[in-house]
Amino acid sequence: MARIFCIANQKGGVGKTTTTVNLAAGLAKVGQRVLMVDLDPQGNATMGSGVDKRQLELSVYDVLLETATIAQARVTSEKCGYDVLGANRELAGAEVELVDVERREKRLKEALVRVADDYDFVLIDCPPSLSMLTLNGLCSAHGVIVPMQCEYFALEGLTDLVNTIKQVHANLNKDLAIIGLLRVMFDPRITLQQQVSEQLKSHFGEKVFNTVIPRNVRLAEAPSYGLPGVVFDPAAKGSQAFVEFAQEMVERLGKP
Ligand code: ADP
Ligand code: MG
Prior knowledge:
- With 256 residues, the chain is an alpha/beta fold.
- The chain contains twelve helices and eight strands.
- The site of adenosine-5'-diphosphate has 18 residues, from α1, β7 and α10.
């Protein structure tokens, strides 16, 4: 049975998509069966997994509107070693179209149940908002992975997300918990980043992943080749860190 995780943070540009595709590729590399779900109408995680969002016949949009199943809409990214339930601009319309339908926040959850045995991990890339799309992600998941940069306002932004997760936990999804905070784009030469990193650890303790993802230009270059860094340049420091993170995830989940 698949373990399902949302990669969420309501801020844009904090590394959600980079984390999603590289963790997916890292997990695939250590032998896990992975489905990557793109819930962002920008479709960056789709493109970054080698799947052309403009050529999708079916996407996560069809799954949310129940005009297709995940088994019909998923595609395999041969290069990356995982399956992709893609997204494109069409998904922006789902927000409005779902307003009046029943079980609107549970559509993705119900669809995932039917493919749960096909995977060890499902990773959901969320858009930078606390919208109906993100809510569908949070309702589906066992846990949330929060990528964050160690900057001055990082902790402040976290409060909104933590409150949303608490509300979803209380009202819609008893399973939901923050699995961990992942420090990304980390530059150890910057004193402030070290300080914020220490604050995070003292404040959130075990919830901060041991693995730290460094700022690494190869991770930023990889999407223009339609690949996660882990596949594009496996030897790069950032790629190695993501494989290490994949191993940490597998180990953490092995423990009761
Ligand atoms: P989000 O999905 O939260 O909007 P992205 O994953 O798209 O964020 O990342 C924002 C930008 O930062 C992208 O251009 C991406 O390539 C770059 N980036 C992300 N992580 C790293 C990293 N560890 N090192 C260097 N650049 C990174
Ligand atoms: Mg993104």
